[in-house]
Amino acid sequence: MRDDVQLDRPPRVVPPVLMYHSVSPATTPDPNLLRVHPDRLDAQLRALARMGLRGVSLRELVEARDGGEGARMVALTFDDGYRDFLEHAVPVLDRHGMTGTVYVVAGRLGGENDWDEGPRLPLMDADEVRAVAAAGHEVGSHSSSHAHLAGLDPAALREEVAGSRLALEEVLGRPVPGFCYPYGDFDAAAAQAARDAGYDHACVTRDYSVADRFTIPRFYVGQRDNGPRLAAKLGRHLLARTRVR
Ligand SMILES: [Zn+2]
């Protein structure tokens, strides 16, 4: 996919990567704080634009950084592949001329988030995943079954990381360069499995301890994050990444 020199080189500066899950106007209980209302997402994207920032897929951001560009980009990532992404997030992203990355659980397409305690939410099926890609957004892998990857035995790890990539490439008919560790849970073997599977990069949650190309940190954005709170989180991200370098 890329030459070997590029593969293990981290993005020049750890880029800001926002992490979302569900985007929906639903009012049912949301104990795991997975949901952001479409109006809130709209306000957050407006706030980013006011800061001179453009939301893009993580693939686009990493490619831009590889080329020495993308300083005004932030990546917008949406975990688990909830069906509401197509209905509620895509129109808001379109309105702002922004794109995002959806990390889908390859073995659960058309199913539910049965790995979570709490409310069950429907996940996109294969046709919907293709529709997301056709609408100009990135589809990445979030493993085969949303397993905890740290400490997993080698064969199961390969199935979760490499197997999910093959399955998604079959669905999409195109390469899948991005991987996202379920629960942000990774160890050295999991990161190596992502490299070995041919991914270009992978992202984690919050953890800034490694922050290389296969452990790109992300921070949580939720319903309570208005413009000033989002700006504060971006600021904290800049400080955190400074500490690790
Ligand atoms: Zn997840």
UniProtKB/TrEMBL annotation:
Please name the GO terms that the record assigns under molecular function. hydrolase activity, acting on carbon-nitrogen (but not peptide) bonds
* Record keywords, A-Z: Signal
GO BP of this protein = carbohydrate metabolic process
The keyword Cell cycle is assigned to this record:
no
Q: What cellular-component terms does GO give this entry?
A: extracellular region
InterPro entries linked: Glyco_hydro/deAcase_b/a-brl (IPR011330), NODB_dom (IPR002509), Polysacch_Deacetylase (IPR051398)
Q: Can you tell which superkingdom this protein's organism belongs to?
A: Bacteria
Report the principal subcellular site.
secreted
Every NodB homology domain range: 72-245
Task: Give the UniProt subcellular location, in the record's own words.
Answer: Secreted
Name of the protein in its database record: Polysaccharide deacetylase
